[in-house]
Amino acid sequence: MKHHVSFSGGKDSTAMLLRMLEDDMPVDDIVFFDTGWEFPAMLEHIERVEEYTGRTVTRLTPKYPFAYWMLKRPIVARSGERKGEVHRHGNGWPSAYRRWCTREKVAKLDKHNKDAVRYIGIAADEASRMTSLNLAVKDDCRYPLVDWGMTEDDCMAYCRDRGFDWGGLYDHFRRVSCFCCPLQPLRELRTLRKHFPDLWAQMLEWDANMPDHNQGFHHYQTVRDLERRFANEDLQMKFSFTTREHSEESYVPDK
Fold first, then answer.
1. What distance in Å separates the CA atoms of residue 172 and residue 166, rounded to the nearest whole number?
2. Which residue, 7, 69, 71, 162, has fewest beta-carbon neighbours within 10 Å?
3. Average pLDDT over residues 5-34
């Protein structure tokens, strides 16, 4: 039986991999699915892990780039008058109910990990996710962090003690996944726009070319809607700061 580590590159899967190797647990393959939507700093982190461990990370990729799936993929009608014909192009942005990106990722990983024991980095304080994701019932899955009682904070400390900092990604985000994920909370999208303007610009470009049948990005708003909202917030904050600064300068204390 082969032993495969499911490696996202985040703090939990990194801590799991490092401890498994330090404890001389069997690791036959380290498997990372590169969506093409990863933060550049995450890809650099994975290279650092390879250098640190002396092990090669297997990189899987989707059959077609996700931007193609999102914007140009021919979609065949399954019913109606045009059944069997291409009736539109592009899946549009993923959503909680339209996670075509996750389906592609899971299918590719399942195929690669067939007949192998899979080690999944779910922290001890997230053990409930095993049930919500229907993972606990899989006989071929192991959850070392749960067995070790390692929480998310433990995982972060474990990695930082070994010199990993993800280029500061965790200083900005609670979780680090695809930079353009529509399921991120608004506060993290604001952070993305502020600290990673080049990635935000890429999202705006994709958004401008989104198929008409699926314009929504986050709660039915487009990225352009969010850009206008965030820009307006910036103006309001700047105006508030300028007004307060002017008031402080013009204030004359009583004698």
1. 11
2. 162
3. 97
Residues 92, 215: contact at Cβ < 8 Å?
Answer: yes
Alpha helices in the chain (DSSP H): 11-22, 40-53, 66-71, 100-112, 128-132, 144-148, 152-161, 169-172, 186-195, 197-208, 223-250
Question: Is the overall model pTM greater than 0.90, yes or no?
Answer: no
Domains and CATH numbers, the chain: 2-171 (3.40.50.620), 184-249 (no CATH)
Strand, coil or helix: what is 68? Answer: helix
Instruction: Indicate if the pLDDT at residue 94 is higher than 80.
Output: yes
By the 10 Å C-beta count (0-12 exposed, 13-18 middle, 19+ buried), 124 is classed as: middle
DSSP state letter for 165: -
8 half-sphere exposure, CB direction, 13 A CA radius: 14
Amino acid at site 60: L
Integer Cα distance of 190 and 170 in angstroms: 15
**Amino acid identity of 112?**
H
- Give per-residue pLDDT as tens, 221-235: 999 999 999 999 999
Mean pLDDT across the stretch 176-190?
A: 94
